[in-house]
Structures are given as C-alpha cells and as structure tokens.
Automatic annotation (TrEMBL):
Signal sequence segment: none
Domain of life, source organism: Eukaryota
Bilayer-crossing regions: none
Pfam family, one: Acetyltransf_1
Name of the protein: Acyl-CoA N-acyltransferase
PROSITE patterns (UniProt xref): GNAT (PS51186)
Source organism per UniProt: Apiospora rasikravindrae
Amino acid sequence: MPVSPPPGLEIRSAQPGDITSIVDLLASAPDDAALYQYPNLLDHPDALRPMHRAWVRELLQDPTSLTRIAVLDGNVVVGFSSWVRRAPNPDHPGILHRIKISEPLALDPEDGQDGSESPPSIEPDKTRAEAITRVRERLSHTSPFQSIPRYSLQGLAVHASHQGHGIGTLLVRWGLEQGAAEGVPVLTAGEARGVKLYTSKALGFQIVKGSEWWLDRDGQDITDQEAKEGGYSHWESIHGGVSGAQVVWAPPGLSLGIEGVIYRG
C-alpha cells in the first residue's frame, strides 16, 4: 500500500540551481528502457550523468517544455516530470506544434556542473539500443494521437529511496489538472513499471490499443499473440526482456474515438 507523501513535500517548476539534484535523481532511478539498453548500468550508476545533464539543461532552456519537480527540505529533488503541450498550428491548419508553456531559463556554463571526476564510460548493448529506437520510431509514426491537441508527459522519475510514497502520482496529476482545465487529453508512454503506475486507479490512464510492444533479451520483437497467450515469456524482465505501451487519459466528460476505440474520461 502506498505511503503518504513525506511532510514538507513541495511541487514546483525547476530552477537552474536544481540541475545537479535532478541529475542525481535520474542516476538513482533508471527506467526499464535504460536498464535494458545498458545491462551493467546498476554497476555504474553515474555513467549516464553527462547525458542526463545535457538533457536537463536543454529542457530548462526550452519554452515549449515545462519541468516540474518534487522537493524535500527546500532543495532535495526527489521527483521529476517534463511536460509538452501540443496545439493546432495557426500557420499550418491540421498540423500540431509545441506551444510555449514556460519561461526559458538563462543558464551559465557552470550550472549543473558538480565538480566530480569523469564517470566511467559505458556502452549500450547495440542490438538492444537499436531495438528500443525501432519501437519508439514505430510508435511516433503510427500513433493515432498525432492530430489530437494534448499534453504529453515526456519524462518521469522518482528517487529510488522515495518511491512508493505517491510522489510520481502527484507529479502526473499536475498534467491531468491542466488537461481537465483545457479540455484536452494527456498522452505518455512507458515501459512495464511506468505503464503500471499510469493505469493505476489513482491516475486512470488507458492503454492505447495497438501500441503495446514486447522485446526479448536479444532485441527481437515478440508478437502480441505470443505475449498474451503466455506461451512465450522471454519479454519479461526476469528473462532479460522489456515491454511497454502508450497510454492516454481523457478529462471527465470527454470521449476520444480513435480507430474504432472509444477512450472515455
């Protein structure tokens, strides 16, 4: 049973001084896709810090991206989420574009530099990395939501020592409140652990039909029939595989009809 959020937890927009703490957080809580691509990542938790730092700096300087964080004691970042709002482009009818949802932050070159020694280099498993890229490209090209104005959750993480306290749920609910206020759905994607959180009773996302995917330990696609009939379980993490899906949340009173499937708020 989830534990109540710790006392004094604050949810707010990220600032330049939070970059190092966000990077610490991301290093502590790798997602299933990262663990799949980097089989030795848990032995080298700091190996991806340069990549995380560059990504976070880019997010904070992008006015079409909004980074929200959960903070304890005023400065300890224990949760992270990144949001994008897609709306019709007035210059190109029928096409969505990302609109401004934040004020870009002016960063100094030193912001986020923690003075630590260079982390050990670590290379992804090439076949697995190519498989994850293949899945994500397929979903981006075939998603039935490409023409629907929406909020998109681009990233979510909770510090390993603070998981199970409802922090991730609080971070996601911010986007649901925005979607409800504007009458637009929320879309995101994740691997098995993320999908379990999103589709929980506390959040109420629905899996997008046809978006589920499964990969075995060798980067080979598993068909939905093989996965759902239970005769082939090599996509499960205990066998070195990984799985995921897109999920959608619709605000109360809104129904989305997509390729014959109705998603009701």
